[in-house]
Amino acid sequence: MAATLDSLPSGAVTPANERLSRPLDSIDIPHKQVKKICCIGAGYVGGPTCAVIAYRSPHVQVTIVDLNQARIDAWNSDELPIYEPGLDEVVKSVRGKNLFFSTDVDTAIKEADLIFVSVNTPTKKTGVGAGYAADLGYVESATRHIAKVSTSDKIVVEKSTVPCRTASSMRKILDANGKPGARFDILSNPEFLAEGTAIRDLLNPDRVLIGSLDTEHGRAAAASLADVYANWVPRKQVITMNLWSSELSKLAANALLAQRISSINALSAICEATGADVDEVSYAVGLDSRIGPKFLKASVGFGGSCFQKDILNLVYLSESLHLPDVAAYWRQVVDMNEHQKRRFTQRIIKSLFNTLTGKKLAVLGFAFKKDTGDTRESAAITLIKYFRQEQAKISIYDPKVEESQIWYDLAEPGVVDDVTALKKQVTIASSAYEAADDADAVIVVTEWDEFRDTQLDYEKIYQKVKKPAFIFDGRLILNQKKLEKIGFKVEVIGRSRADESFE
């Protein structure tokens, strides 16, 4: 059932106690009213963010542009290119009214008062900083295009996640290439969206950060953007600060969240070795008001477009600033995440009598988390690579990821280059039951609700799989005792096997 806007839970509200950022009156100065917005980049950030801006600001015209014609066509169709609960309702309620999707980048830039730069910033694969630094090629290209096309003053907003002081580079490009009489003011406005809850996060944000230069023009530009968000976000939750603090806050937030996941995953290994239950441990720890319960759910590993990329970016920044101990600290968060995937694979191999050769594994889930079709840095990709190396046969089912996307991810250079060999080992199923047919083991990799034992008929699954019937829960979503009564041999992240004894 599709989620509606009314059914989405409200977000947290940050109390406005003592503000460490600029006071509210810092943006109570003369400033331009934003009437037209251009967003460069129709991806996971730009699309939902600007759709919600249009939805909550009917007097503002919002145009989202991208050079990818197929992506723009999808945004203008009944089948949006992104699956996100609530997004469909938002887009279709304002599309064609004050929300537009187009490939006419030049016109949108010329007409806009404010331009969001929301392009991809992938981790560099080659050259200096390869594997760590962000590739800012798309940001630079977009910035140069803004300078080339603009004939009037523009507020240019960093929306992509970027390294600290990227705004300085953008400003230099704009000042060096802009037309006479066209002034550019740079803002940082990082996104804090979690895929699967992005619309909720946008409608009810914890905070909105706006970074600007502490000058009259900088504060005026921040005030203009603050007015846009004030159409639905309380002023006390719009936080203004300097550019560099805003840029770094995004990296810091993701690094700290990923650190919590790696911390509980490290403890899950101890739980398995001692007989403790990681769910019980995380529950007990989360009751401490100083810690809280969020992001303490053990799993096979975190994924997504931000966590790993942003931590590696922080590692590179630390090394660039000659802080090797700081860099090593943050690198360990990523190392632990990779260790968790290897450890889970080794547990599967050990349980299946120390070999996966020729055995069929039913992999349930390919997205990096539930309620999204996004597969970037998904644990499933790494696990399947390991399974293939062990000569296993793999059947994959995911309710939202397109078959073409699965083949693309598995055949991506550096993962698997031989598509012919890939398709001899991997098949894509149309249901969990099809994937489990004659399987030696079922492996839950994504925590989709439909994989829970309250929705999926595991009695039926049990009849389809080989015996002994192994099931591996990499997301802590299954009732272990219930499945054991059916007859399954159940292996769960952060829990010891039922047949193991401890002295």
Question: Strands, helices and their partners?
Answer:
Blueprint: E1 36-40, H1 46-56, E2 61-65, H2 69-75, H3 87-94, E3 99-102, H4 105-111, E4 114-117, H5 137-149, E5 154-158, H6 166-177, E6 184-188, H7 198-203, E7 208-212, H8 216-229, E8 238-242, H9 243-274, H10 278-286, H11 307-320, H12 324-351, E9 360-364, H13 379-389, E10 393-397, H14 403-410, H15 419-425, E11 426-428, H16 432-436, E12 441-444, H17 458-464, E13 470-473, H18 480-486, E14 489-492
Parallel strand pairs: 1-2, 1-4, 2-3, 4-5, 5-6, 7-8, 9-10, 9-12, 10-11, 12-13, 13-14
Write a compact overview of the structure shown.
With 503 residues, the protein is of the alpha/beta class. It has 18 helices and 14 strands.
